[in-house]
Hints:
The structure holds two protein chains of two kinds.
Chain A: E1 2-5, E2 9-12, E3 17-21, H1 34-42, E4 50-56, E5 64-70, E6 76-81, H2 86-94
Antiparallel strand pairs in A: 1-2, 3-4, 4-5, 5-6
Chain B: E1 15-17, E2 26-30, E3 35-41, H1 46-57, E4 68-70, E5 74-80, E6 83-88, H2 93-98, E7 106-110, E8 115-121, H3 125-132, E9 147-152, E10 155-163, E11 166-172, H4 173-187, E12 192-194
Amino acid sequence: MLITCPYCGPRDVIEFTYQGDGNRERPQPASQDLDAWNTYVYDRLNPAGDHNEIWQHSGGCRAHLRVVRNTLTHEISSVAFTRGDHKVDARHKAEGKI
Amino acid sequence: MVERQSPLELELRSGSHGDFEHGVEVILSETRPGSILQLAAWPGQEKALIAGIRTVTGLALPDGAGAGSTDGVRSVFGFAPGKFTVVDEGEGLASAFANVVTPAIGTVTDLSHGRTAIRIAGPKAEWVLAKFFAIDFALPAFPVGAGRSTMHHDVFAQIQRTGADQFDIYVFRSFARSFWKALCHASEEVGYEVQ
């Protein structure tokens, strides 16, 4: 399986580390909403088809990537840096981190 | 400055080795640069960092991922978004950057004692490296000056092409001796010389 890193180009999957399901939304750290935490930790869509995933190019540029991978064919239909992720940015802004 | 010992000392045997009767097609050496730095820009500060690199080293970074340049004494290349490796034959490069790369622009990390620089040169250098790394070493895909970060098994490596048939490889110091031995084994069949 090849993943085309937006910085390094096409690389073998051995250079990448799977960082989990990309559909999860982490509750605020101080959140006491147990249902939200339960959903974040345990609930997975497990689709047979396109799946949003987070990968890290740990054996290359070390960037975290938002990857859409087909769980049936392993076809990678999109790869982007998580750094430009608006959802993540919005959360960090809400927390006053940037 | 403390005198630096090479992790390759026990294994670095000068002379020709392997199948060199038909000619030496690869030359291996340790370049022992005085300074190896990693510079990182905060988001949005990349251009300011590139300007700072030019101020200190006189090297202009071309546009594009993994682009770089070298003048034989100093080298620079991008290895990740907003991150650059800068190498100088002389020591003290980190202090030269200290006033240029301010905390508002980014960070300077001195890796001079943490990395070992190995040079592979010769007509079969591309061919030997292609046995190690699953990346395209052809000149159009990997131009002179450019850098790549990749790995050989678990040995993380940054590779800069410093000539049409010459590559500088930066590996973790703790892995350098085993990487060097592997590189020697891989070069045996083409005939190699250690300088």
